[in-house]
Amino acid sequence: MRESVLPAVQIVLTLALLAWMITGFTPLPGRWLRWKMFCRATFTIVQLTGTKDGRTEPVNVYNHLSPGSFILGPPQLQAILDHLTSSGRYDRIDGTGRILSTRGEQDVKVVASRVVR
User: Fold this and answer.
1) What 8-state DSSP symbol labels residue 40?
2) Band of the pLDDT at 101, cuts 50, 70, 90?
């Protein structure tokens, strides 16, 4: 009887650990990635188009971050937009996207090279 208790306890503990891990990585409504590493991070996913002399082309703001960077909040996005327009690369940048943060998911717009929430 004692020999069958140990495997049963191991199975129960393994299933409890598995359930805890699964619920720890599932999103709550309005939340994204509950894992502690992501609790203070802000991610911006945007589709932007830049206009220069009447021609438009897609703009990838992540090309202007340092290698390995992937966390981009609205202030950093605005700084990149300011750089791209002040350098003369684009006259205007517009687009839409989502901000993923501890406050959940929010819409974001870029209108005339300005981030608008």
Assistant:
1) T
2) confident
Question: pLDDT tens digits, residue range 42-73?
Answer: 888 899 999 999 999 999 988 888 776 777 88
Of 54, 41, 49, 108, the residue nearest 84 (C-alpha): 49
Distances (CA, A) of 104 to 44, 64, 77, 100: 12, 26, 18, 6
Q: Cα–Cα distance between 76 and 20 in angstroms, integer? A: 35
Alpha helical stretches, state H, the chain: 2-24, 74-86
Please tell me the predicted confidence (pLDDT) of residue 1: 55
CA distance 67 to 91: 26
Nearest to 27 by CA among 96, 97, 100: 100
- Cα dist from 107 to 42, 70, 71, 99, whole Å: 13, 19, 17, 6
Query: Which of 93-103 are b and which e, b meaning 16 or more Cβ less than 10 Å from the residue's Cβ?
Result: bbbebebbbee
DSSP bridge partners of 94: 49
